[in-house]
Design goal:
The structure is a single chain. This protein has 337 residues and is an alpha/beta fold. The chain has two domains: 174 residues, Isopropylmalate Dehydrogenase; 151 residues, Isopropylmalate Dehydrogenase, CATH 3.40.718.10. The protein is built from twelve helices and twelve strands. Helix 3 packs across helix 5, helix 4 runs parallel beside helix 5 and helix 6 packs across helix 12.
Length: 337
């Protein structure tokens, strides 16, 4: 299978992106990779390591400051647009990976690859750690700020299919992000979506408050992109504050520093557990082909994890599973989307 990678997307591109690709190639002998970007710079980094690697020259780069839709339309020689062109037209290419602009990748999904038939909008679904051995998927985490009930219903279906593949859980618990667990609470969107969610072929457990997302009692949290992104950024900020406060407390006196030595292994395990990068990237669920978004700060380990995640989603037919789940409902795509 061939995966196309945007070698110049992300804060640590192109070195970390390319090195991650090389590590993944060593681990997966049936994998080939196409790197898109400035050919001269890519070859300098590869330094002769070209086994099962091809290069598609693309001298331009889409920046986070660029207008996403305009950039996809006009920067035809950019590394990201070249990736989308290969993904769309090359049958051997099964997936695209980029750590570049989220907005530009979303625009590329809509304008280049298209959506699965019947799906109203593609959505981002990152995997997050919890206080247990289980993980939780947040869908949507920011791709769709303004949503209608049909969008949330599609998010629930796609998130459930994704969770099954990533964890092996046959009946993941799906919750609807709300300000309370009672049926009558919520804004108009939630109140209209709630009864419709009950009719889906998923394990819907009802409304769930934001504080429960990391409890381990829910597997898929469904939200509109605005609320989901606020929740995600709040979690990131809180985690960062806790780590910073903990470090400050440890350094406050000789006794806490001495005690920290005995907790070193525990702190290391906690850090690894809370590190979202180890889960890899986030798929744009609903795209006709696999499109994976790495965090902008992704380094080689995250790139490797994303490639392995992509292989798993392809081998377990994520797109076909979403289509099959959609066929079990009477949901119709909103023609005005």
């Amino acid at each position: 299978m061939n995966i196309v990678i945007d070698a110049f997307g992300g804060d640590y591109a192109p070195v970390e992106i390319i090195e991650g690709a090389l590590i993944a190639l060593k681990k997966h002998k049936d994998l080939t990779i196409t790197l898109c970007g400035d050919e001269i710079k890519i070859k300098e980094i590869l330094n002769g390591r070209i086994e099962r690697i091809s290069i598609s020259h693309a001298p331009d780069v889409i920046l986070n400051s660029d207008s996403p839709t305009t950039a996809i339309r006009t920067k035809k020689d950019s590394s990201l647009v070249r990736c989308f062109d290969l993904l769309k037209h090359d049958d051997e290419t099964v997936a695209l990976i980029s750590a570049g602009s989220t907005g530009a990748i979303l625009s590329g999904v809509i304008m280049k690859t298209g959506r699965i038939k019947g799906i109203s909008r593609p959505t981002l679904a990152p995997i997050l750690p919890t206080g247990t051995d289980r993980s939780v998927i947040l869908v949507d985490s920011g791709a769709n700020v303004d949503c209608k009930p049909v969008n949330l219903l599609h998010f629930a279906l796609m998130g459930s299919a994704y969770y099954k593949i990533m964890t092996g859980e046959s009946n993941p618990r799906v919750g609807l992000l709300n300000i309370g667990t009672e049926d009558h609470k919520g804004n108009d969107l939630i109140k209209e979506t709630y009864p419709l969610m009950k009719e889906l072929p998923i394990n819907f457990i009802g409304s769930v408050e934001a504080r429960e997302i990391m409890s381990g009692d829910i597997d898929v949290m469904v939200a509109d992109g605005f609320a989901g992104n606020v929740l995600l950024k709040t979690l990131e900020g809180t985690a960062g504050t806790i780590v910073k406060t903990l470090k400050k407390s440890i350094k406050s006196n000789i006794f806490s520093m001495f005690g920290a030595l005995f907790m070193k292994k525990t702190f290391k395990e906690l850090k690894m557990k809370l590190d979202a990068h180890r889960y890899g990237g986030s798929p744009f669920l609903g795209a006709k082909k696999l499109v994976m978004k790495c965090h902008g700060t992704a380094k080689r380990d995250t790139v490797v994890a994303t490639i392995e995640q992509t292989i798993r989603l392809h081998e377990n037919k994520l797109i076909e599973n979403i289509s099959n789940m959609l066929s079990q409902t009477t949901l119709q795509e909103d023609e005005n989307e």
